Each structure stands twice: as C-alpha cells, then as structure tokens.
Amino acid sequence: MEKEFKAGFVNIIGLPNVGKSTLMNVLIGEKLSIITRKAQTTRHRILGIINDKESQIIFSDTPGFIENPAYKMQESMNEFVHSALKDADIYLFIVELGTALEKQVTLYEKLQKTDKPVLLLVNKVDLARDEIQTKNYITRWQKVLPNAETFIISALNKFNVDSVVHRIKQLIPTHPAYYDKEAFTDKTERFFVSEIVREKILLLFKQEIPYSCEVDVESFKDEKKIVKISAVIYTERATQKSIIIGKGGESIKKLGTLARKDIEKFLDKKVFLELFVKVKEKWRNNDSALKNFGY
Ligand code: GDP
Ligand code: MG
Q: Which of 72, 233, 238, 280 is the most buried (most CB within 10 A)?
C-alpha cells in the first residue's frame, strides 16, 4: 500500500541574529532569506518549501522578535512572529549557544503553552568553548522547555541539520500538499530582487541607513536573454539619499553591481538593473507606506 502523504508547517522562531535565515537557506538549498551580521535583516515572513515523494515541509523564516519595538514597521515585524506562533504544526526554536535565557522569555513562554512539537535547536555550536559549556546550556533550556527535543547544530557548517529534517519528517501530520509540488517558496521573484538589493544596502552602509531604507521593484521585464529590472530605494531623509548615491554616484554604482551579480545568480539569467533613490519621509511610521511595502 502506498504511504500516506504528509504535509505541514514548520515555523522557525528565535531572537534576531541567532541563525534563522541561515538555517532556512540550508534547508531549502536556495538563498531565499538574506543574511547579514546585522540584527533585523529579515523583515517579512518568508516561506521555503521542500518537496519529496512522501511529504511537503513548509518552513517559515520570520524576523527576530523585538522586545521593545520603536517603529510601526517593527510592530508589524513582530506581528509576523506572532502569526508564526499560531499556525505551526512544528516549531523550530533556534537559540544561540550562550545567549541568556532571560532575553528570550517572551518567546519561550509562548512555546511552553503550545501542544505542538517543539524542536529546540542550539545553534552555532562551532563556536563552543567546550562540551561542558554546551551541556550546561542545554540543561538550563531543558528545565524551561522540558517537552522540547534538543538538537545541537551549526547552520553555517550544516552540522546536524540532516537529523533535524529527519525528525521533522517523522513529526509532520498526514495531509495533502498545501502548495504546488514544484514550488519552493510563496514569494515572487520581484520580492527576492528587492531583498537582494536590501541585503547589499545592509552590507555597504552603516548605522541607521539600512534600517531607514526600503526597496520597491517598479518594473520587472523578463525578455528572452535578459531581465530588465528597475527598482526604487526609499529613504527617510534627503541626507540618507545623498549618502546612498555617494560622491559622483559612486556608492550607488557599487551597490548596483553587487546586487546585479546576486540577482543574476538567483534568476540564472543576465540582468540589467536600474536603481533610483527617493525620499519618503518617516515611512517606517506611516501606515499607508507600510501597507504598500507589504507590512
Ligand atoms: P537571523 O537574524 O536569525 O536570521 O540570523 P542570520 O541567519 O541572518 O545569521 C546571523 C549571523 O550569524 C550571520 O552572520 C551568520 O553567518 C551567523 N551564523 C548563522 N549560523 C551560524 C553558525 O552555525 N555558526 C556561526 N559561527 N555563525 C552562524
Ligand atoms: Mg533572518
């Protein structure tokens, strides 16, 4: 008899910078989520799907939970986290080895209440001082989340990620596929293009600048041999706009080149990328601007 098909939602939860997006990309084998050293790189909830003959696992990467949001944008980022805390069949709670449990109270208190399986992934074990540190850290978590199953992993080095996937496949419920079996995400190519541009902004500019920017892909034309894309970078202030452009347009040129190369890799096609910069004052606190940007 044929085995019954299994499908389910696996939501990745954790503080900023613990490695959620890195893990998601390793799981999917595609660079879906942008990753930088900076906290709050991920702003949306992004689905990544793995399909095989017997199952469909739908992961969702979320922004890191922000304890004290300062902008409406951050409130809406937290909303993505809250929604991810509601609809999972399985939770992957990622913690970074060594990070104080006290900083994660809001999250673990929510997970204490769930009746769904929780896999506690202790990430970045490649940086462990020794085994005792890891053991003690895990013991403390097990007191707080006694029902969670613990895995030590290194998302960066793909260490032990296979056993996590193996366990997920055992735990997901019997259910028909939710998405097309060819799909690996719910987001459009345009979305990923704007994310790649945003990643380069995070890499190239300091302090508040990246957090004040949003990217909107205005046109995306897939022609035979080339994809022609034009995107607008919105900043909150005119001074930020001139920093993004740089002396004689130097900075934006560099930004455009880096972004184009990654977009070409992602789309597997030649790309012509045009970037513009516009000021949209205080968009991070402006409801209609946030709505337009998909928050
Ligand atoms: P997120 O904010 O939780 O999505 O975290 P990211 O996936 O963006 O990763 C934040 C930073 O941690 C990046 O610089 C990653 O390269 C780094 N990182 C992620 N996983 C590991 C790991 O297993 N080991 C080490 N050493 N660094 C990691
Ligand atoms: Mg992230």
A: 233
CA nearest to 60, candidates 94, 13, 19 = 13
Longest dimension (CA), the chain: 69
Pocket test for ligand 1, best of 17, 93, 122 (most atoms within 8 A of CB): 17
- pLDDT, mean of residues 114-138: 96
Give the sheet arrangement for strand 270-279, strand by strand: 214-222, 226-235, 270-279
**Is 126 near ligand 1, meaning CB less than 6 Å away?**
yes
The answer, yes or no, to whether residue 143 has pLDDT greater than 90, is yes
pLDDT of residue 206: 86
Element (H, E) at 12: strand 6-14
Ligand 1 binding pocket includes 17 (Cβ within 6 Å):
yes
Mean model confidence pLDDT for the chain: 93
C-alpha closest to that of 101 among 69, 142, 129, 60:
142
Q: What residues flank ion ligand 2 with Cβ within 5 A?
A: 20-21, 42
Q: Whose alpha carbon is nearest atom 10 of ligand 1?
A: 17
Whether 2 shows a pLDDT value over 80: the answer reads no
Q: Are 284 and 291 within 8 A, CB to CB?
A: no
